[in-house]
Amino acid sequence: MKNSRRDFIKNYGIAAVSAPFLLQALAGCKGKTDQTTTKIAGMASSIEKFGLQLWTVKEDMAKDAKATLKAVADAGYTQIESFTGEKGIFWGMKPADFKTYLSDLGLQMVSSHINPDFTTKKETEDEFKKLVDDCASVGLSYVLNPFPGEIKTADEWNKITEGLNRQGEITKAAGIKMGYHNHHIEFLPTDDGSIPEEIMLKGTDADLVSFELDLYWVVKAGQDPEKWLKDYANRFKLVHVKDLYKEDRLKEIEATEKKEDPFWPLGASTTLGNGRIDFSKVLKTAKEQGVEYYIVEQERFDKSSPLQDIKIDAEYMKKLEFA
User: Fold this and answer.
1) How far apart are CA 56 and CA 71, in angstroms?
2) What is the helix (H) or strand (E) element at residue 167, kind and residue range?
3) 198-208 pLDDT, tens digit each
4) In what helix (H) or strand (E) does residue 236 lie, and over which residues does it extend?
5) CATH-assigned architecture of domain 5-319
6) pLDDT tens across 213-260, in order?
7) DSSP code for 21
8) CB 81 within 8 A of CB 295
């Protein structure tokens, strides 16, 4: 099943979890984490628990959610982050039943990406409150805006910031927290030269709103994820652990494949440890700066499949040692 991000937003009123494409305009950029020396040992991992963003296995979830979740658990994941598919974040089950099924598998749903319209459209507030109550009832820690749309002006980002604070008041009352997940556009200058990620970090109340840092997109944008983590300590509570192909493979992809959408670049994520990000170093900094959840995600599967590659990614996480 082929699922374009733009069609997904159009059909379900939400944004995709993390874009499966690379920004062509940034193709020549290298982040400071262009490393190949991630330390892997045969003993225990420095990260005790890690999760999977279900967008990684979205086609499998659409076909058979229960069987796919069992495969996720069998691969070694103990946490999941959901997203709003056609059947909702609980995949057609009642919240309590979904929690029970996960518990029986040894899984915990810690977060979910939700409809970004909740941030800007006040008429959706009742629906948002109902979802938040459901999420709180099953023990979620965070609900996140995954992508607000193709916006470019500082004024639009300020409105997003205001909406996040408003949502944060609602989630706080329910005992969970509002969050925001980045892609590439948050690091591109707006019409007045400001950086969207900074607009939101500075404009949101830290008691109400946290952030999820997608390491793939930060590095692709030529940014240093460790600097963001340190400059805004304790604001990033989740990270997407997603690797970016090294430069030679990236150039090959761009030379041989055609973009389907002018906004979203060609996908270049790969299995953990096969790309350029030094996770042993970056994730150590993440932990030191207050990150609580490490969510694995992969969106490209060359000569493989999602259910095969999530096993490789899980084995990597099980053996990862901090630098």
Assistant:
1) 13
2) helix 154-174
3) 999 999 999 99
4) strand 236-241
5) Alpha-Beta Barrel (3.20)
6) 999 999 999 999 999 999 999 999 999 999 999 999 999 999 999 998
7) S
8) yes
Rounded Cα distance between 27 and 24, Å, is 5
- What residue ranges do the domains of the chain occupy? 5-319
* Interatomic CA distance for residues 64 and 309, integer angstroms: 18
Using CA atoms, how far apart are residues 198 and 203, in angstroms rounded to an integer? 8
d(C-alpha 238, C-alpha 51), whole Å: 10
Which residues have C-beta within 8 Å of that of residue 104, sequence separation ≥ 6? none
**pTM score, two decimals?**
0.89
Strand 269-270 relative to strand 243-244, pairing? antiparallel
Largest CA distance in the chain: 53
Report the chain's terminal Cα–Cα distance, integer Å: 39
Non-local (6+) Cβ contacts of 47 within 8 A are 283, 287, 294, 317, 320
d(CA 45, CA 316): 9
Please give the distance of CA 173 from its chain centroid, rounded to a whole number: 24
The DSSP H or E segment spanning 108 is strand 108-113
